[in-house]
Amino acid sequence: MENKHASQLISDNLNNIYGYAFARLYDKDDVDDLTQQIVYEVLRSAERIRDEEAFWGFLWKVAENTFRKFIKQKERRKSFLPLPDGNTEADTLPSPEEELTERESKNEELSRLRRELSLLSKTNREVCLAYYFQNKSCKEIAEQQNLSLEMVKYHLFKTRQLLKEGIGMERTYGEKSYNPGIFRLNFWGDKNYYSNICNRKLPGSILLSAYYTPMTEKELSLELGVSMPYLEEEIKILTDAGLLLHNKDKYQTNLVILTKDFEKELENKTKDFFKNISKELFEDVKALLPEIKEAYKDVDLDDNCLIISAMNIVSVNAFNKANGKHPYGEFKPLPLGCSGFVWGHDNNYEFMKFTGISMHVADSEDSSWFSTENYKVFEKCSRILSGWFGDNARLILSAIDETTVRYIDEKAIEELTEKNVIDVKDGAVYAKFPVFDEGTYDHLIDILSPVIEKEAELMKEYSDKAAQLLAEHCPPSVRDQCGTIAAISYRLDTAAIIFETLVKDGIITVPDEKIPITMWGVKK
User: Fold this and answer.
1) If DSSP codes are grouped into helix, strand and coil, which group holds residue 235?
2) Looking at the structure, do residues 307 and 399 belong to the same domain, yes or no?
3) In terms of pTM, does the model score above 0.90?
4) Is residue 346 part of a domain?
5) Which of 162, 281, 288, 400 stands 20 to 30 A from 448 (CA)?
């Protein structure tokens, strides 16, 4: 609150303040003195008052404290004897400025004590609080903490030492305390149990902070501006999930982070890598168009969409081919109960080429399956959700088999119908995307196999470049993960960059209408 505003409020209510003083003192001079001291104390601290509503509680609290101090000083003055120099002790009382300095010094010391308490490790903190704040004996604490009596005494001694040292230190919060940054998690595997673990800012900030350099809990606490009681729980969640490793007294992030700096450097170093090969792959598929049309004979697509659809089938099979010849490794069991690989981004998926990928989703009897790749470049016309493990998946598989819907989820039907993925007639569901019988699909793959081979080698070459650069950007502790993460992420990105290049050069066009051009199904 501005001092001018506070002065006006005091002026308007001076009679009330005077009445407060008069009700407690009967000497007019004392009443005048107390009133003036109350006004002085309020005006001196006016800038700390939030608003007018908070002013009144603050005013009467200050009045009460000032009255108590006034009485103490008055009692001291009554008993003061003359000093040898002719003055009295009253003349040596601290001035209001000296009292303010002393009070601020005590507040600063208390603030530092609280800061140091928040930085204590769990055991030291709990022993300290139990002994000093809950008045428990060392024996009671030993039983409560499952410690020996000697260890309780040691922790109390150690805590006193840490607090004494810490109170005298200047500590500075790190950048993450006010600028937490952005962290996003990525997953490639079977069932994703990691999707929600970094939805909040704090766990992501921990992983970003401890990525390049191992950090103690205290160092993380200062870097993040979060006290230990709150930080410990998040650290445990990340450690239990295998995303954070604990070595002695330090923690370090246990996953690769695809940083902005790395992504930008990769783009710059490979900007010409896809220019000629993208057009070459397009021409290869275009040359096979008459044979491709035979496989798509029941599908109503123009040549532009037909080539996009066929090139997507090439890309998915090229990814599988590249992994068959140059494996990125088997899915590894993860601590949360699923299998696969986890990595991160220090940005909001700015460099991601897809909004979701589901390469092979089959029914329970494996009698039919589908694949859909949500490229950002085709988002306008072909934005299909990637969570194919619920009603959406069942509807799509029913559409492939042209069967009656066993139970209807109106929301899923509405969504997939609106996206032009399915059609519903007389209770039966029909696909509005290419569906092949198994023999036709195998024949189509044979036709496209030379292009698949060529793109598989391209994926391998590009992911190798990415892996090499990634190893230069990441800490040694996770360098062994670089090859796998690069193979998964950048072999897939190869397909997207090819499409982006062809669209940018005007060789293919993105349809205006909603059409699932990067989706297909197979029924056995």
Assistant:
1) helix
2) yes
3) no
4) no
5) 400
